[in-house]
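Title: Prediction job returns without error message
Component: structure pipeline
Severity: low
Priority: P3
Assignee: unassigned

Description:
Job completed but the reporter wants confirmation the result is attached to the right record. Sequence as submitted:
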Amino acid sequence: MDKKNTVCETTPQKPTYQILTAGQDAYEKAAQAIRDGKIVVMPTLTIYVLVCDAFNAAALKRLREIRHSPADKPITIVMDKSKIPEYAVLNERQTKIIDIFSPSPVSLYVQKKDKTPLDAATAASDAIVVYFQDSPIRDLYECFGSILAISSSNTKALLAAKTIEESIAYFGETVDLYIDGGPAQGDNASPHIDIRTNPVESRRAANHFPFEKIKAILAENGLA
């Protein structure tokens, strides 16, 4: 009796990560995931970013690992301007600049206080890079109720993801939750300026908000 060849079929495994459509329900679920120490990918006004709890050393370590970032690389902090004096040393001029650029598409270097709870995020840096923008990140921040850490959604030397599909291609199941806000509106991370110096210095340029525009805004407010 001939034996028939049999083909063993397997059912593809479902991915362990979730994909949610941007909106209040998604931000509430993302906030809880972050409280649980997880990593989330979500959109800003320009690119997609990785997000975790700024005070969770294990989550910060994991974020650096999946991006292939050095352990001593500072991570940008999301916090509204009312909280910045708790963690940074500011003078009157710097406070005025913060009032102008928070919220905005601009990230600000401020002088870190000694031994803050943000040391795991800022690593060896003496500065905190503060980011606060009217975008889905602000919605998540308000749902989370505390300070977040973010980094562009890419691995070392590659372009930042502009879609959820690009983010998944980079990170796959190393990220726990993806929030899909559609294609990004730009292709640059935020510009960085160092407000500790006088005049202010550019630390990272961005086409969508050039340093010349930043200087013009400062000049209009007598802060050039």
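Comment from assignee: result matches the submitted record. The two ends are 92 Å apart (CA to CA).
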